[in-house]
């Protein structure tokens, strides 16, 4: 009788070869992964510091905070801070001190050049440890003309005008006023941008330090046959000057620019413009 032998296992060599194959694949993948460079962490963007003038009118601080919230909504993840030149907390030196030596772009909530833009803000920035750049003031710019137009429409300015209405209408662009000639130049440019947009004359006038005053500009336009004269408020926030100018309006008076969405877009534009200029200079 022939002795029986247990059946030979065919699976052992197969399992060994499979294990070797998997091990080779794992080894090759591990080698390839070692060749992949680690992800590069992008540096945090420079902080955006809104530089407001400051006011004793509590509505001004409320407005600036609302504008800051709009900027944050448009650019999530961007650090946005607030500092005032005077009258309100936080003051700009304190805001900059809290940043340490971080990078920051200071965006003045001012509508023209002048002493604050040329002297006050650079002086405070130079005294801080933070690595700062100061952006251009908000005005003049076509986005400001857009926001001024929107505020006029809210106050009752017609969406459309025929020729007769245009010939009898005009706008006084009421600004704070300054003895700095650059400020007057910028305000006149802002008036021209708004005039181009509206198709009617726009005369710059001032609450202080410059002429003509708002009542003088209104009277001159009325005497020239412009009987529907509106006052556009060239102020970033409510306050004493803005209220005085509005009271001189014989027809409609627009609200200050305030926290209009276009203002938030313009702030981010000035921030990006400053960074782009820095990149160009570095190249």
Automatic annotation (TrEMBL):
<keyword id="KW-0456">Lyase</keyword>
<protein>
    <submittedName>
        <fullName>Sirohydrochlorin ferrochelatase</fullName>
    </submittedName>
</protein>
<dbReference type="GO" id="GO:0046872">
    <property type="term" value="F:metal ion binding"/>
</dbReference>
<keyword id="KW-0479">Metal-binding</keyword>
<dbReference type="InterPro" id="IPR002762">
    <property type="entry name" value="CbiX-like"/>
</dbReference>
<dbReference type="Pfam" id="PF01903">
    <property type="entry name" value="CbiX"/>
</dbReference>
<dbReference type="GO" id="GO:0016829">
    <property type="term" value="F:lyase activity"/>
</dbReference>
<dbReference type="InterPro" id="IPR050963">
    <property type="entry name" value="Sirohydro_Cobaltochel/CbiX"/>
</dbReference>
């Amino acid at each position: 009788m022939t002795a029986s032998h247990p059946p030979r296992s065919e699976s052992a060599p197969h399992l060994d070869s499979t294990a070797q194959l998997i091990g080779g694949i794992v080894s090759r993948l591990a080698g390839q992964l070692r060749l992949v460079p680690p992800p590069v962490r992008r540096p945090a963007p420079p902080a955006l510091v809104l530089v407001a003038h400051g006011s004793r009118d509590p509505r001004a601080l409320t407005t600036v905070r609302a504008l800051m919230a709009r900027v944050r909504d448009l650019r999530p993840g961007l650090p946005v801070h607030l500092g005032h030149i005077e009258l309100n907390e936080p003051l700009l030196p304190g805001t900059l001190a809290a940043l340490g030596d971080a990078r920051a772009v200071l965006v003045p909530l001012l509508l023209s050049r002048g002493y604050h833009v040329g002297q006050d803000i650079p002086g405070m920035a130079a005294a801080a440890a933070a690595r700062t750049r100061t952006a251009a003031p908000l005005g003049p710019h076509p986005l400001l003309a857009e926001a001024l137009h929107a505020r006029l429409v809210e106050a009752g300015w017609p969406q459309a005008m025929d020729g007769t209405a245009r010939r009898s209408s005009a706008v006084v662009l009421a600004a704070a006023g300054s003895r700095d000639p650059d400020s007057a130049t910028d305000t006149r440019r802002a008036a021209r941008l708004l005039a181009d947009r509206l198709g009617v004359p726009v005369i710059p006038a001032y609450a202080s330090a410059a002429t003509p005053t708002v009542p003088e500009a209104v009277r001159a336009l009325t005497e020239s046959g412009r009987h529907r004269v509106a006052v556009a408020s060239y102020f970033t926030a409510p306050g004493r000057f803005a209220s005085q100018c509005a009271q001189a309006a014989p027809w409609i008076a627009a609200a200050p620019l305030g926290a209009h969405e276009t203002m938030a877009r313009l702030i981010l534009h000035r921030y990006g413009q400053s960074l782009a200029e820095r990149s160009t200079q570095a190249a």
